[in-house]
Specification:
Residues 41-215 form the LUD domain. It comes from Candidatus Competibacter phosphatis. With 220 residues, the protein is an alpha/beta fold. The protein is 31% helix and 22% strand. The longest helix has 15 residues, at 3-17.
């Protein structure tokens, strides 16, 4: 064995034999103590800073806001899930002058071209994070990932009661450990990317617009 190799091996053995460096348990940052109204206001502010459009409404009027949003954009259709509470409400309240409802009921292989040709899609949300200004989505068989990804306009419906101070708080209060999804998404605005010079561009690899309807039945 050469002297150089022997020296290297000796140093490795000496390093391994040393006592492990003492480490301290990381301390989670303090959670934000905000009122319901402040959480809604902060989430709205941060989402709008990332070019999202946010409307504060309530459970009885959100469809009216949605209809105004779609009429302004002259959308060619609204992709939705017929099996969700949102889908059932849309079917019951839809009007003939609005863009047609398009149910996401087929496997992606059978409707791929149609999915990417529809202007808008609507989904529910698992919750919102006030500290970073993000929505939490849990795609599943009823609301697959492409429902929020394929259309140029993603409309998300969020109940104000599901806004949390942080991701850690959301995971704890909603007991994520008891049923963690295979795919959890955090969305803070329209899709965005940056080039090597860190120039941020919106709407490149996904929806060009994010419209959030926050349903707050306790607003003043």
């Amino acid at each position: 064995m050469s002297d150089a190799r022997a020296n290297i091996l000796a140093r490795l053995r000496a390093t391994t034999a040393q006592d492990a460096v003492a480490t301290t348990e990381s301390v989670a940052p303090p959670e934000m103590e905000l009122s319901r109204a402040d959480q809604v206001a902060r989430l709205k502010q941060l989402l709008e800073a990332m070019h999202a459009e946010v409307h504060i409404t309530d459970s009885g009027n959100w469809t009216s806001i949605l209809k105004e949003v779609l009429r302004k954009r002259s959308a060619n259709g609204l992709l939705y899930s017929p099996t969700t509470a949102i889908g059932i409400t849309l079917e019951e309240t839809w009007e003939s002058d609005l863009p047609p409802l398009v149910g996401y009921t087929e496997a992606v292989e059978q409707c791929k071209e149609r999915l990417f040709a529809i202007d808008a899609g609507i989904t529910s949300t698992q919750g919102g994070l006030a500290d970073v200004g993000a929505l939490v989505l849990w795609p599943d068989v009823h609301e697959p990932r492409l429902l929020s990804l394929a259309p140029a306009v993603h409309i998300a419906v969020l109940e104000a009661t599901k806004i949390h101070g942080s991701l850690a708080e959301a995971m704890r209060r909603e007991h994520w450990a008891e049923g963690m999804p295979t795919n959890a998404l955090l969305i803070s605005g329209p899709s965005k990317t940056a080039d090597i010079e860190l120039v941020l561009t919106f709407g490149v690899h996904g929806p060009k617009e994010l419209i959030v309807l926050i349903l707050d039945d306790e607003r003043g």
